[in-house]
Structures
1.
Amino acid sequence: MKNPSQKNVIERAKTALEKKATYASDIDLSIFNFPEYSEEEQNIEDFPPEIQNIFRATGMEIDEKKRSASFIMVNHSIVYEKINQTFNGQLEIMGISDAIKKYPEILEKYLWKLISPDKDKYTAWAALHECEGYFIRVFKDQKISRPIQSCLLTKDNLAVQNVHNIIVMEEGSSAHIISGCTVHPNVKEGLHLGMTEMYLGEDSNLTFTMIHNWADEFAVRPRTVVDVGKSARFINNYVLTKPAKSIQSYPSILLSGDNSNASSNSIIYGLGDSEIDIGTYIELIGKDSKGEIISRSVAKDNSVVNARGHLHARTNNSFAHLDCRGILMSDDATMYSVPELTATKAPKARLSHEAAIGPIADEEIEYLMSRGLTKDKAISMITNGFLDVKLLELPEQLESYIKKMIEATTEESL
Amino acid sequence: MLKLENISVEVGNKKLLHNINLHIKKGTTHILLGPNGSGKSTLLKTIIGMPKFKITTGSIYFNGIDITDKTLDERARMGIGLMFQNPPAVKGVTLEDLCEAIKNKDHKTPTLSYARALNLTNHIDRNVNDGFSGGEVKRSEVMQIKCQEPKLVLLDEPESGVDLDNIELIGKVIHSIIQSHKAKKEGRSGIIVTHVGYILKYLSATEGHIMTNGRLILHGDPKVLFNDIKKHGFMKKGKRL
């Protein structure tokens, strides 16, 4: 889609084209190509088996029986979108370009309204270039009992995928969105820019689960802002079990409504030479808002894992906790845990954090070995248990799938 | 089944065991008595091969094979099992998952039936030993040993921190592991470290050993040794020697 940004957005973006991001290494945007819109629409089951497997690895179900809707984007072409008949009239899912054509007010109401186009060079670039992504709206009071699934695939090497997603949860609605991002096996190097703006209306409930699989030389710069309305609940889950060159993500969750609450959970496996800088910022604005950040990271090989979390209370009686733990499993890996608490003009806010980095205790490994388990098996059991998928509060099937994915990564990396 | 020949052990640079000789025959149960710090737990941990305990002299044979240089997990897979006195909690690993991982392929008894027998049905989906009471920890240990089915069971103070009801339960299950008809037929053996001897109500010991200052100083009928210690204590026993 042609760059949809409004004039003021473009002007602000232009001022930030050279503005480096606060965290992680700087990416040279000039080396990436913008791919052609050459992908044709096709049914999910018509994709070659190896591509179907790539979709599956991001939590996607090919037979869609346990999903309410599906969306697949390859480079910037939307190749598949479907709502399961049972859910017709309860939600809508479409490409952002089609959505803007259908509802021009999106430009005024949602696009670039939460994310600042001049935040850094990545938002600026995204605002000034063509983009595509999904628009998902769950209608008032609709409870979507099965997850909505999406997968954004980068197909060409050295390509940039410029994504802009918008999610609108109307009053009283609830849903679970599984948002997968991945690359074709031919892709070694590339860049994913993902702008996602989510609007949760009063009493709505959204679980947003991201399962990402990248390539060794791939860079990822998502920018996400979520506005959580009165008595609404937002759960953000992030799972990363494959290496990438550099990922820097620091979504902001704004608890603007009274009694709103949010949990942000991440399970991160730092592998190979990956640079991973992931955090969550929760701002407690509405009265009695509550927030929680839980992070479990394992750093292996030469990886660098920065796990951040910032709780910012702007109102009295707000309550939030941050729990950030990591295991460093290599002499050459680095882990940096940064918990931050801020209370601004809110003397009755209660914020707390616990952060820990440490090895797996020899005593625990030896205990399991004394039962006949090999050292590798003992380490993998403890590691898999540490990266506890139950934290994500997922449907049983998806939980079991992610558990297996983590176990497979542990096995491969031993 | 197990033969220790002239075993000396160091931890760090401190010598803890001196020239231990011990022979455990198939189908026998031995008790090991001695004051705190005399080296009883060290001996059990040396037999199973905990890495901290370095053997400086001597050899250990298990079923005729020299296991002195075998690793901890190799010895466990060969058939040596240790019921720890104070096992660590293992966060992230549930008791059920551990039991399933311990069992070999031919082990048909469901973990749940062990959990029922040991009053642990509410604990099997909890992290191993995490927040367990003293009695629950011991029952968790016995449950793991049931799953492991070792030929030689090493019990390190199975009664410590346990109330009498739990001792009865644990005693009966340990009896089934090493002294039931099936266990006898299979020639299972045990070494039990005990201070109070409550466990002996449920198990019959065939031989007793007294240990002081890292040395095995006396061997004999377990009942005689135990009664003697009850009357005179270890020091008197030591002096008389």
2.
Amino acid sequence: MGTYFELDKLDLLKDQFDTAEYDAEQAEPALYIGKEQLLDLMRVLRETPTYSFDRMGMLTAVDYKEYIEMVYSLYSRRYDKWVTVKVKLDRDNPEVESMTQIWEGTNFEERETYDLMGVKFLHHPDLRRILMPDNYEAHPLRKDFVPLEPRIEGGVLTWHKQRSMS
Amino acid sequence: MHSGILYSLGQSLREILTSLIGVPILVDLLMTIICATILLLIMATSALVFTLGERKICAFIQVRIGPNRVGPGGLLQSVADMLKLMDKEDIVPRGIDKWLWVLSPILLLVPSALIYAFFPFDDGVILADVNVGLFLLIAITSQTVLPFLMGGYASNSKYSLIGGMRTVAQMLGYEVPMVFALMGIVMITGSLKMSAIVEAQSDVWFIVLQPLAFLIYIITALVESNRPPFNIVEGESEIIAGPFTEYTGMRWALFFLAEFSNLMCIGILTTTLFLGGWHGPDFLPGFCWFWIKTFLCVLFYQWVGWTFPRARVDSMLSFGWKVLLPIALINVLLTGVGIYVYNVM
Amino acid sequence: MAQTEKYVLNMGPQHPSTHGVLQVQVELDGENIVGAKPVMGYLHRGIEKLMESRTYVQCVPFTDRLDYVSAMNNNLGFCMAVEKLAGIEVPERAEYIRVICAELNRIASHHVFIGSLTNDLGSATGMIYAFRDREKILDLFNIICGARMTAHYIRIGGVAADAQDEFLRDTQKFIDYVPEMLDEYNKLFSGNEIFQARMKKTSIITKEMALKFGMSGPNIRASGVDYDIRKIDKYGAYGKFDFEVPLGKRGDNWDRYMIRMKEIAESAKIIQQALDNMPEGPYMAKVPKVLRPPKGDAYHRVENTRGELGFYIVSDGSTKPYRVHIRRPSFVNLQALDTMCKGMLLADAVTAFATIDPLMGEVDC
């Protein structure tokens, strides 16, 4: 897939954003950014003509037990370059700006991430569960996920915490 | 006056009855009952035959085998289907308009059975050869719209309602050009009597004299009987089954039966109105020719149906009003001019 | 003045033409569509979660179940992502066999597209013809790996078994048959007036909209965006083949259909080249019995039949992936449904479902 974003340009970005950092040891280093500056960084990546990352290739979150990491994979059709942007989020209250403000097509993917990982996207137009039932209260892709127990209550399917195994 | 096996059979039956009973009114009544029973039997058996025929033909067109397990070569498949349908649970959905819902499939069968009275099957073999035969035929066939709308409304389902509404729209759009197309035939014949229309075709069939009307008629007939490519009322990929989405078992089978009966009706009508009815070379009796032509027509309609995709409702309606109706009117005009020229010459 | 009221029609999850278990809440004004809201999740099996408790090799069969009508492409995507993560070099012959299988599967998947589209348009005949030809490809898969739909043939490091002469010969036969097949389709439906009237100028997606929604695959190419990952990334052996990327102009249903018809011909071209230049050699790389990719993450995307299929795999150095995320093209493409349906008629909604070609196994994952 094309070539990775040049390191000198990553350096430029690092100067521009004080929370940006990357591991220069790696061949294809991901660009880490604080969640406050994420939206600005993305705007710059998308709108600066020398970057023009016009495509949000993939968007997801990974639960690293201590923190949750958002992963964005951007692709520039014009320069055939790609870059990975990562944001570390607080695991107990993961909140991040919604990318729908820049790429409208991330709507469903963010809803999925919200549904399965519990990341709240601020300023998302329609943040609802997308795959799991609407009244489901857990986020399955978290590492400490325990499946809820389905029960019919008053003709409605409800979900309850499992009673302890012992 | 009349000739043909069927006519002589009927006459001898009448003579036997007269000698047995003697009262003319009773004899007439008995004859009518016998004829009506025979027609109903024809209708019911033809539905069975046509179901199998349709499935076999459709399978042939679609490079498949078709039903081949029940009976020799799958011949009894329709019987098995019928038994299965009768055996099915009769589900009555909640929130329906009970009376309309129950009546709808039954009422649908009435017009499609009634019109068999006006078909001339052979020379002189026609149950009710009334003066306004064609007029009555059109009037009765257009009644099928009401049960559809009733079923669609009464089912308390949006799909059914959309289907019911579509029926009305397409009836309005296609009844008019159809009537105008048939006007040409009436003008040439000078009569609305079905037997007279067939009689007028003893030399030249109306398909030759009225090619435009024939084209318009086959299109509108496809619409009238909800055959593809104009089966928007059922449109199974859009609105499931239209007005009969909520029906099951025998009730659904009645809709089905009416549909096949309609298909046969348009086959018979095409034969009667354009293909010379029971006329044909002498080596076969008239009713044989009648049925051969009817089956060929039905085959044609099925062939069309299994080849084309479904038309969209709006383009179909605008086609009816903006294309077919003007052509039908022009046809009436041309026929008038033609008749005038013919008379002058 | 008559009073009218909008109403919501619930299409699916049980509906003849929602391609599986897609539910669409269509807001209607008479028969005009005001909005269409897709509701998903009826086929959610939690494949991403399931993969976390399986070894890498055990994960591959799950990918078959994602987009179950083009399983080979999914196998390819996952295996290439793992190979990238673990640094495995795939032998050339395996690459060629992979390309042949993936492209055959692309044709088979387009057969399903054509079949379901014509069925939704009310001509079941088209479906049978398309499925008859799809059967030929499934038979080819049967020869090469013993499975027809969920093949699980492409493995990490290569392919499961070598391509036999019988397979290569029969594939050649099928490729020779392709022009005749397309000709028949064109005669049967492409040239049909009703078919064209229903497809042309309906459910238009402009270039801008397609880019905005992040669409991919034939759907974005129908809008005139040259975006084919086979050409851009040249992954696997694709760089060695000469093929064109067909593009549409208007982005209507007709373009989306024609693109796929042309893609079948292009795929046949690729397979022909692969058959002609098939190298000799091993069909499987040396992959350790217990695969432990180094710590780190990898994202690899391939051109699935429905668009850009990406696998993001995080490894913690153990035998099982720490996290797998699948970027499913149909899932993203489905966002355009609302725009496609707005202002159209109910009958067009069905065509729009068909031409956007979502596969619920993939959407719900």
